[in-house]
Every structure is written in C-alpha cells, then in structure tokens.
Design a protein that fits this description.
alpha+beta; Glucose Permease (Domain IIA); 10-stranded antiparallel β-sheet; two-stranded antiparallel ribbon; 7 helices; elongated
C-alpha cells in the first residue's frame, strides 16, 4: 500500500467534481453553503471529541472524508468565481455602453437647450404664434411647440432613467467584485486547511504501513462480525414475518374470503396494513431522517474499503454519526415488530409499516416495546456512544419484507 494511491483517489475526486462547471451561480452558491455546512458537521461529529485511544485506520477514513468534501468545496468556489468573472466582464461592457449613451443624450440635450435659448432671445413664443399668416398655420405652430416641449421633457426623463441604469450596473459590479474577492480569500483558506489535512494524512499512512497486517486482520474480523449480526437480524425478521402470518391466518380462518397466497417471507397484509404500506410508498424520497442531525459515514451496498484494496465492506443500510445523547426517531407511523438485543447489550428496534420494516440499530436504551404503536418523529431510543472512539452512530436499515432497500432513496436529501 502506497500513499500514491490516496493522492490518485483525491485526483479522481477532483475530476468527478468538474461537473459543477455546468451549473448556474445560484446553484453553485447553494452547493457552497451545503459543503461548508458538511465540513462543520464533520469537524463537530468526527473530530471535536478527544478519543481515549486513537485508531489510525478509522482516523484516516474520517480525514479522507473531510479532504474529499474540501476538494469539492474548492472546485465549487473556483466555478462560482469563474462565473462571477464572466458576469463582471459583461457588466463592465454594459456599463461602458450605458455611459457612452448617457454622454450622447446629455450632449444632445445641452445642444437642444442652447438652440431653444437662442430661439427665445430672437423671438418669443407669442410673437412666433402672432406672426402666423393664418389660423391653420398658428395651430400647426402651437402643436409644434407642444411637441417640442414634450420632447425636451422626454429627453430629460430618458437621461434620468439612463443615469439610474448606470448607477444600478455600477452598484452590481461593486457587489460582484466584493463577492469574488471574498471567494478568492475563502479558496486560499480552504487550500491551507487541505494542506494541513494532507500532512496529517501522510503521518497516518506511515503509521498504518508499519502495522498493515495487524490493521487488516482487525478489519477482516470486524467484517465477519458484521456479517454474523446481519444474518441474525435477517433470521429474526423471517421469524417475525412467519409469526405475524400465523396470527393473520388464524384470524382469517373463518372469514368469508380467504387471503391471497403470498410468497415465502412476505407479510400477509390486512386492508389497514395495505393502506399504511401504500402511504409509506407514496412518501418515498420525503421521509424524515432517523436523527435530527448527522452525517452518513457509510453508504448502502458493497463498496471497496478506502484504505485496503481487496477488502469489501458491505453497507446493509446507512451508518449515521450524530451528536452524543441523540435519540433515534421513527421515520413513519407503524408498530414495533420487535426489540432485539445483541450479545454486547446494544438494542435494535424494528418498526413495521405494512410490509416495510425500518430498523434502528446500535441503541443504548429504548423507549418503546414490542407491539407499541409509534408515529412519525417519535423518539424510540437513545443511540449508543462508543467510549473509545467517542462516536455516536446509528445503523439505519430499511426492508421491504426481507429485501434490503437503499435508505438514501427513501429519506429526504440533505
């Protein structure tokens, strides 16, 4: 394992964020704010607490996460500054044209006023009318004088309008230039921070290199342990479905209509349960997070380990790190299917929503019991905080019957 691999991964990340160039400045501004917030969350949730024992591998993963977010932020700032530069150039050209037009208007207006003054000194308006040869000519001369007065007024108003336009464009330029200067300063700050993080990254890589085989064994042991826990949860869910179906069949034994046959490991749903499942499905992508605040440190699905090529990590759901003392919250109305307890005392609350199940694992204590009815947002248990790593992590898993779903597709995007 060489540090070069990590720099290559960072370089690939920079390439992946080039897509931001096609976005509007408003979109980039929103993305910049979001990334700044993510960095604050990472610092608060992953780096704020001082750990009793440092784990170089875990620390490296956290640091890589922060570096990747900073890289995206720098790319976003660069794109936003580039768009601002274009806007400034367009506005400078517009300002130049507006100033020239304003100067021409003022010159024409001054020339007209001068000619009008000369005309008044030679002959008054009354004399101009009285010298008419007939009534028709006098009427025409009166109309001309009215039109001339209106034209002077219109030219004056046009000068005022263009003066305001020049001022507005000038003010906009000043704001844009100030924002660009601010972005440049922000970019320099982020580059300094990322350099500090990279130096720390190199130290961690050197530490891991010295004990690479030891870290690999530890990691492989954790992967195996996670697989055992996953298998136990899967087995328990199958048992719960079977138990629920036995009860359902017993209730429907004497019913006039027999329930439709269902596949193995699928819930037999009552009309009420079907309605609940339908509502759950209609809220796909709009369901609340199971924690009020947190960041995803492991996504759903199989993924290569960020530090050790060849080792695959399987995300059965979302691993969300949150603040110490935080509670897990129900993502939708439902009933508690079961509360599982692992060998080390950690608890896992399973909530049924028709034929969907939401799982809240790694709880220190629970506020609900099997059979309880829960509502959206209800606190169901306090999340466990590891005394060594100081991390408070919820493992949130979503099922349809026994099939795992990607929770990211169901909860709100942050």
């Amino acid at each position: 394992m060489k540090s070069r691999k990590f720099y290559i991964s960072v370089f690939i990340l920079f390439l992946s964020v080039f897509s931001v160039f096609g976005q509007t400045r408003k979109q980039l501004e929103e993305q910049r704010k979001k990334l700044n917030y993510e960095i604050k969350q990472v610092n608060s949730l992953l780096f704020k607490e001082k750990k009793k024992v440092n784990n170089a591998l875990e620390d490296l993963n956290d640091l890589n996460r922060k570096i990747s977010i900073r890289a995206k932020l720098i790319a976003t700032i660069n794109s936003e500054a580039r768009i601002l530069s274009k806007e400034i150039r367009v506005n400078e050209t517009e300002l130049k044209e507006l100033r020239k037009k304003l100067a021409d208007l003022k010159e024409d207006y001054a020339d007209m006023i001068f000619k009008s003054y000369k005309s008044k000194s030679q002959q008054s308006r009354m004399m101009f009318l009285l010298s008419s040869q007939n009534f028709h000519q006098a009427y025409k001369r009166l109309e001309y004088m009215k039109q001339y007065t209106d034209f002077r007024k219109k030219q004056g108003e046009e000068i005022v309008h263009h003066s305001n336009e020049v001022q507005a464009v000038n003010d906009s330029l000043l704001v844009q230039k100030a924002l660009k200067d601010k972005l440049i300063v922000s970019e320099k700050d982020q580059k300094k921070e990322i350099e500090v993080d990279k130096k720390h990254q190199e130290k961690l890589l050197a530490t891991i290199k010295k004990k690479e085989s030891s870290y690999k064994r530890e990691l492989q042991s954790k992967v195996k342990a996670e697989k055992r826990v996953t298998a136990q949860i899967d087995r328990k869910i199958r048992e719960e479905i079977e138990r629920a179906n036995r009860i359902a069949r017993e209730k429907l034994k004497n019913a006039p209509t027999k329930p439709k046959s269902v596949k193995k490991n699928e819930f037999i749903l009552s009309p009420e349960a079907k309605a609940l499942a339908t509502k759950f499905e209609l809220n796909k992508g709009k369901l609340p997070w199971p924690v009020s605040e947190g960041i995803v440190v492991r996504k759903f699905g199989k993924q290569p380990h960020p530090s050790f090529p060849g080792i695959t990590v399987n995300g059965t759901g979302l691993h969300i790190v949150t603040k110490q003392g935080q509670d897990a919250q129900a993502i939708f109305n439902g009933s508690v299917l079961n509360v599982l307890v692992s060998a080390d005392g950690r608890k896992n609350v399973l909530i049924q929503h028709g034929n969907y199940i939401s799982s809240y694992n790694n709880l220190e204590k629970t506020y609900v019991k099997k059979g309880d009815t829960v509502v959206t947002g209800q606190k169901i248990g306090q999340i466990f905080t590891d005394k060594v790593s100081k991390k408070t992590k919820l493992i949130f898993v979503l099922f349809k019957n026994t099939t795992r779903l990607n929770p990211s597709s169901w909860i709100l995007r942050r």
